[in-house]
Amino acid sequence: MSGRIRITEVSPRDGLQAESVIVDAPTKAELVRKVEATGVDEVEVSSFVSPKWIPQLGDAAEVFDLIAPTKRDGVCYSALVPNMKGFEAALAVNRDAREKHGVERLIDKVSVFTAASEGFSLKNTNATIEETLERFAPIIPEAHAQGLMVRGYISCVIKCPFDGEISAAQVGDVASRLLELGVDEIDLGDTIGAGTPDTIEQVLLEVIDRLDGRAHNDFGDPTLTLHLHDTFGNAAACIDRAIEVGVRSFDSSAGGLGGCPYASTATTRAPGNVSSLTLIDAATEAGVQTAVDRGMMVEASAFASGLIK
After folding, report:
1. pLDDT at 269
2. Alpha carbon distance 8, 28 (integer Å)
3. By CB distance 3.0 to 4.6 Å, which of 49, 127, 255, 290 could disulfide with 305?
């Protein structure tokens, strides 16, 4: 098997948002620099969600300001935006970066998010799936007008902690709606890590069918990304199967940090993201390359893990 996978490092955002300890902005900026230096294609830096809901990421603008002078050529910085207010905050960051640091575009991609499960959508966004789509629909053309790529996250593509099993068709229907709205990338999240190679394959094939041959978007990146959690130790096998069916873009987290706070139960902590080292090793085993220096990722992962101890 030939080719290369694209890696989005999510530890600064998804990795830290559920932690009880709040990491300060300079330390978050250092985490971004360390994971960026490994050679990953993209760093999901932060989220412009209200600090009332995610206080751990209330310093997004400050973090972006700190990393603006050292952004590596060729790396993509992305940020989560739940609504127009969050999107406008992201645009303000880009304006400030141009004026203060001479960086033409600091944030290259914004991410909107919904779910394949009504129960999870209501818990995570206080809105139905359709309401989430209506909420961020105006963002997409505005982002494109600014030259920004738009990622559409779909949570709970295998199973929901509230609604139970999710069918591949449910996921496909949400993916189709996102594509109709104009997103450039679909990111499928196995939010609670319930996936197996077979169930992951079913969902991937369904969404690939909805993509109708569009393997890459107008920005030259893959239109389909997989976001796994390694709850039951199945992530490596799921990565292998995903690569077999043609997926070439994955999210991962240095040190395996993270897990959606709304996926936790009264007795069980939200499971963590698949670690970047697990992804790199699984890709190597599958015969595909990455742009990442594994030794540097070992160092970055140790730094990331130390932030939550």
Report:
1. 56
2. 16
3. 255
Cα–Cα distance between 258 and 191 in angstroms, integer?
Answer: 11
Pairing of strands 6-9, 109-115: unpaired
Task: State the pLDDT at residue 258.
Answer: 85
The answer, as to whether pTM is greater than 0.85, is yes
CA terminus-to-terminus distance, the chain = 39
Catalytic choice (76, 160, 238, 260): 260
Task: Please state the domain count of the chain.
Answer: 1
Q: Is position 289 within any domain?
A: yes
**What stretches of 146-234 show up as alpha helix (H) in DSSP?**
168-181, 197-211
Q: In this structure, what CATH number is given to the domain that contains residue 116?
A: 3.20.20.70
Residue 1 lies inside a defined structural domain of this protein: no
Q: Is residue 132 part of a domain?
A: yes
Residues of the chain with pLDDT under 70: 1-2, 259-271
Enclosing domain of residue 37: 6-306
- Whose tokens are 């999510």? That residue is 10
Domain assignment present for 98: yes
> Residue 260 catalytic?
yes
What digits encode the pLDDT tens for the residues 246-295?
Answer: 999 999 999 999 865 555 556 655 568 999 999 999 999 999 999 999 99
